[in-house]
Amino acid sequence: MSWDYASLLPGVIVLSSLLPGVFIFLVREESHTLRTVLNLTGAVAKLILVGLLIYGVWLGQVFETRIAIAPGLTLVLNADALSVLFVTLSTVLWLITTVYAIGYLEHSTNRSRFFGFFSLCVSATVGIALSGNLLTFVIFYEILTLATYPLVAHRGTPEATRGAKIYLAYTLTGGLLLLVGAVWLRTLTGPVDFVEGGILDDLPASLHGQLVVIFGLLLAGLGVKAALVPLHGWLPQSMVAPAPVSSLLHAVAVVKAGAFGIVRVVYDVYGVTLAGELGLLAVLSVLASFTIVYGSILAMTQDGLKKRLAYSTVSQVSYIALGTSLLGPVATVGGLVHLVHQGIMKITLFFCAGNYAETLGVANVSQMDGVGRRMPLTTLAFTIGALGMIGIPPIAGFVSKWYLGLGGVEAGQHWVLVILATSTLLNAGYFLPILYRAWFRPLPASWPKEHHFQTRFETMGALLWPPVITAVFCLLAGLLAAAPFSPLEWARLIAQREYGL
Amino acid sequence: MSQLTLLIIFDGVLLVTLLALAFAAVLSPEPRRAVMLFIAFGLWLSLVWARLRAPDVALAEAAIGAGLGGALMLAAARRAARTSTRSDGGGDEA
Amino acid sequence: MTDPLVLCIALPLLGAMLVTALPRWAVTLGIVAALSTASAAVALTATVWQHGTLHLMLGGWDAELAIALRADGIATALVLMANLVGLGISVYATGYFHDRIRVRSFWPLWLLLWAALNGLFLAGDLFNLYVMLELLGIAAAALGALTGNRDAVAANLRYLLVGLLGSISYLLGVALLYTAYGTLDLGLLAQGVAASPELYGVNAAAMTLMVAGLALKAALFPLHFWLPPAHANAPAPVSAALSALVVKAAFYLILRLWLDLFWPITDMAVAMLPAMLGAVAVIWGSWRALRAERLKLLAAYSTVAQIGYLFLFLPLLAATPPGPARDDLLAALLLMALTHGFAKAGFFLAAGLVQTNAGHDRIDDLGGTAQRLPATTFAIALSGSALIGLPPSGSFIGKWLLMQGAIATGQWWWVIVVTAGTLLASAYIFRVLSRAFGLEPTPLKFVTDARAEVPALTLALVSVALLGLASGPLWTLLGLGDAGGGA
Amino acid sequence: MLTAQFLYGAAGLMLFVLGLWSFLVHEPLLRKIIALNITGAGVFHVFIAIAYRGDTAPPDPVPHALVLTGIVVAVSATALALMLGARLQDAEEEDQSR
Amino acid sequence: MSMSQSESRAAERNRDLSLLVAVSLAVLGAALTWLYFIALSAGAAPRLADLAYERLPGTGVSNPVTAVLLNYRAYDTLMELAVLLAALLGIWSLGPAAPGFQRSGAVLAGMVSWVVPLLIVTGGYLLWVGGYAPGGAFQAGALLGAAGVIVRLAGDPRAGLPGEGAQRWLLVLGVLVFTLVGLGLMAFGAGFLTYPPKFAKWLILLIEMAATVAIGVALAAAYVGGRPPGPEAQPTAEDEDALTAAETPTPDPTPALRPQP
Asked: Are the CB atoms for C384 and C436 separated by under 8 Å?
């Protein structure tokens, strides 16, 4: 256990948001500056460390922290290509969301508690991303549940506590199923380390029955957070949370943790070949495609803006599951790159929804007439995000849908194209009316709860610039997809290593 | 009547009385009477132990088990009797 | 080298005597005694860590005649937990009792209870264990009835009578063993039992009598009726000691008899009965905790459930041949017991603070208090997560290894029990925690009453962080495979 | 000698069973305490029966010491139980009179 | 269904239940007796007797039971004194003592002034004789306790015991001396409660004296039944003549000695 740079970095990355978080809890309520300083230093420090990590992994260096919490049970934080993708996504978006949250919660109560749990959530997400074996994954997976519960219930209103209770019921049950599956797998194969290409190929055929049941348990556990259809009920309910929570956590961190878990289990535990043989990929693809369609249909019926975005998240995340369930490197690239693209697009949409609610008191789509005139920049960012979601070319969403389509064709599953086409139509179905209302409808007589900020622009700086920045990210990820450090290139690198090309 | 049979008869009488006292103490519902019988049982038990050549323990049982334990129980029995008379008969005592 | 063994028992006893004799100095002397005993326990752990099992024949007589004091890995781990929890409870108690009479009564009885606990964990002689059990039972019942209100006295009277019955049944078991083997020392008896299979009937009867008596005192399912009222009506530091330590000492004795003395006759079939009762205890206890109106009643029923978990290990231990797998199971059992000790003590101390602050502990209207005391609510949250078995707590690893052992030995049904128990536990813990999110004005600072909240927080933190992330040393302390061995 | 040991031991066990029965069946506190004392006396009697080694050899002192300790423990437990019962009775009277 | 019917059914169910319990316990008793017989004939007959007698000279006392109590298993006796103290502290924590009995009449007072000193002297004798003949700390302590009980019955609410402060020291004496002797021996390297043969007799006697006082005071205080009343509870003079004529006291105090109203 020699502690050198390579074995310290992953651990330090997780700690870089955990320690400020713990201190923030103890910060007195009225010392805002100290709290903001702690928050931002944590975010920036993590960003720098992740930068170092990306550079190291790009050169092929191995980063691994191993802590033996009990004989036979070791906590492993290993940075391979797949984990770096998710770590970068969550670190970058965490910095932006912190800035947004500081602005959003300007006059609200219990902020020490909020930011304390906020940092715990991020360190849990980073822990999930960096976990090197199934045990570490389960541990951070449960800590994420614990850390997000207080955030959902932050407002304290009866709906908030009710929503939090539903969220908890789903995620704890899911976590428990995952735990049972992980223990069962551990008894069959010994410590379950994530190794590219999977570790279960050499198991005797007699165990395959148990492996299928275990996959069922793991999928159920992960499916709760990845909001696969029967288990997605909590996501719309947890929209009662403040905007920064629903944007970072319910659009990026929590939901992606589930999808990331499915990717890990399929690629690094079962291995794509074995999963294909056992027919697990077929089940996964059916579930994913059903969720895609079902989520989009329900999104159309929702009048609440955040509820509509929530159901859109339910369907979008299943693209990743669809990508992993199709046999072939191209589909994998599509799925993985969508992990990043969906993140940046959805966070933009939720930032804009937060702006509308905070500045104009607009919460429902029906109230969004003429919003474009009153808040042009925010609505522009919203448009870029929405078009990206639909899959219009210059924006990132198109890239992942394109690769998913190609992957489907390559894997001989032509029905994938049908699914993609219908979902694109449905996306258009629930996003375009919003854009039409925002830009082309006349201004209403008065806004529900207008709030004038003294800034030159349409709303407070801290609320306005984050969505604009993430919108620019969507454009960059779409236009410069072929650039060396772009999400697409990184996804291609992962696919190569997974398939051993 | 040989020495041995005499001894067996003696043991038999000792044990039978012991068990009889125990049964009586357990079965009598009236608290004071039960405590009296229990004190008698304690004393008889120390007699039996003296027979079994355990003088120290016999003395201790007589002094502590039957004596002090009995005294404590007697006080409790009198208090139990007093409250039961007070609750049902309005208590004749001042 | 065996001095700490004796000091662990003599120091609290001496402290109790001084506190009784000088009631005006009760608090200061009490804290001094608590600190010295805790340091003796730490010294004991250090000695056992280096030299392995300690063995001392009191009075220098040979093995059959004298009373043996023995500290092996299991006993030392529990002594260390008991003393650290005891220290936390003592610090909490300095600020808890304000009524002069209560202070004079609490400290002597508490130090006597502490001496009995240490004496029981370190005893190696069957009759000495009987005397320790009696001292434990009487001190605990007397402490429980400290408040003097009606239901506390009634509950503790029932607890005392039940405890006496348990001890007498245990004593009859000892009488049978003494008749058959002619010695009272645990080590010699174990050799005797192993060497005489023809006395199976006597051994089985003695085991049944002793384990039944101890199960009564450890509140195993059907015999748990006395626990909830007794623990819920006691003052907070006392109920913390009762739930975290006293009940666990009785379980430790059952484990000691089960693994050392009656090992040849406790096969899987025999182990199935306590495990089934344990499983029912888990479900029943958690269900009653979910429906409890009062916070301390909830914690008491949760103790009944957690004790149930510990009994689930017995058939697994019986079914696994000696080796790293069995070491892991034994260590997991210890880890669950230790984590429950710390977590339950932290939970009760925090609940006590909530009760003193709110004037009552009805869960449904605890909202305001939970928000005004952030540190206390945080302590409840941490210890609650340890009670549920969520990572990173010690009981998470305990449950992981329990399920692993259950699947490995093919007794998969225990996994269902553990899952149901965990779900019910999370339901009743989060029912309490959801009170902490209301519309009350925000508290200005995190810690409101340091002397009470710091012990509760540290105990809860130990159960979550320390035992969760660094439980490797427990394996070495138990002398099982070296820390990284079983990978 | 063996028959005497067995005879007295059996009597002790009968006392144990009798006390246990009474403890389980009778509800008033005083009868439960008497039952407990009789069960205890039964077990102590078994110890003394084991210690008896005929009229010639001196008896085994260890069980004697154990029983001595047991008696004092039993009496202290009984004292506490009786006083708890008394305190309970007073508390119940207060409730009735209030 | 009228009350009496349900009551009779409940009583009937009760009777059946107790019968069932009785039968099952009888079976248990029979099984235990049969196993007891097997255990008896298991041939461990001498048990610890011979070893105890063989080691007796080294213990400093010739009465084997006292040797076991205060030398071989001294730790047990220490803990048992702690049990007695714990029980008493429990009684004290429950509340103040009940009101004492009325001052005894002339005959009872006369009897008490004879019996109590006799009990104390016999206790002292038993304590001393314990070294080589049946007797010892417990029996002597019991007699002192009995003396206290009789004094209490004769009207002294504090059962002849000093004030609370002094009582606390006397109660603690037994365990304190025992532990200090043990720790002292440990400090001198002999080991906890390991008496060096030369001093064994005197150490045991010292411990026995302390234990006797502690047991006597504890048992008397237990009979008082609560925290000792403060100095103001002394019975005043005019209570003397208010007494009716008291008959000679039998072990069971006659109704004449009813508690003060």
From this structure: no
- Tallying the residues shown for chain B, one arrives at 94
Q: Using alpha carbons only, give the angle C309, C313, C314 rounded to the nearest 5 degrees.
A: 120
Q: How many beta-carbon pairs under 8 angstroms link C with D?
A: 74
| ipTM over the 0.90 cut-off | no
Q: What 8-state DSSP symbol labels residue C259?
A: I
User: What is the DSSP secondary structure assignment for residue C234, as one 8-state letter?
Assistant: S
Query: Residues A309-346, buried b or exposed e (16+ Cβ, 10 A)?
Result: bbbbbbbbbbbbbbbbbbbbbbbbbbbbbbbbbbbbbb
Q: Which residues of D touch C178 (CB under 8 A)?
A: 47, 50, 63
User: What is the distance in angstroms between the CA of the first residue and the CA of the last residue of chain A?
Assistant: 33
Cα C425 vs. chain centroid, distance in angstroms?
19
Q: A58 Cβ partners below 8 Å, 6+ apart?
A: none
- DSSP class of E103: P
Residuewise pLDDT in 10s, chain D (98 residues)? 678 888 999 999 999 999 999 999 988 999 999 999 999 999 999 999 998 888 888 888 999 999 999 999 999 999 999 999 999 988 888 888 87
Chain D: touching chains (3 or more CB pairs < 8 Å): B, C, E
What residue segments make up the domains of chain B, in order of their start? 3-88
CA proximity to A175, closest of C393, C381, C391, C465? C391
- What is the rounded CA–CA span in Å between residue A316 and residue A339? 9
The residue type at B23: F
Q: Residue E71: list chain C partners with CB under 8 A.
A: 59, 61
E67 neighbourhood in chain D, CB within 8 Å: 61
pLDDT tens-digit profile of A443-465? 888 888 887 777 777 778 888 88
Residue B87 token pair: 């609750």
Q: What b/e readout covers E152-161, taking b as 16+ CB neighbours within 10 angstroms?
A: bbbbbbbbbb
Q: Which two tokens stand for residue C413?
A: 């049904």
CA distance C256 to C75: 9
Q: How many domains does chain D fold into?
A: 1
The region that residue B2 occupies, defined by phi over 0 for left and psi between -120 and 50 for alpha, beta otherwise, is beta
Query: Residue D45 maps to which CATH number?
Result: 1.10.287.3510
Identify all chain B residues contacting D72, using CB atoms and an 8 Å cutoff. Answer: 60, 64
C92-150 per-position pLDDT tens digit: 999 888 888 888 899 999 999 999 999 999 999 999 999 999 999 999 999 999 888 89
Q: Tell me how far apart the alpha carbons of residues C37 and C9 are, in angstroms, rounded to a whole number.
A: 8
Q: How far is C464 from chain A (nearest CA, A)?
A: 12
Q: CB distance B68–E261 less than 8 Å?
A: no
E223-233: pLDDT as tens digits: 988 888 765 44
CA–CA gap between residue C110 and residue C86 (Å, rounded): 9
> For E75, which of C23, C67, C196 is closest by C-beta distance?
C67
Kindly tell me the burial class for residue A290, based on how many C-beta atoms sit within 10 Å of its own C-beta (0-12, 13-18, 19 or more): middle
Residue from D25, D29, D27, D28 nearest D17 by CA: D25
B15 touches chain E (CB under 8 A): no
Kindly write down the DSSP assignment for every residue of B9-51, as one continuous string. Answer: HHHHHHHHHHHHHHHHHHH--SHHHHHHHHHHHHHHHHHHHHH
Pull the structure tokens for residue C463.
């159960």
* Domain of D24, in residue numbers: 2-97
- Residue extents of the structural domains in chain E: 1-45, 50-251
Q: How far is CA D6 from the centre of its chain?
A: 20
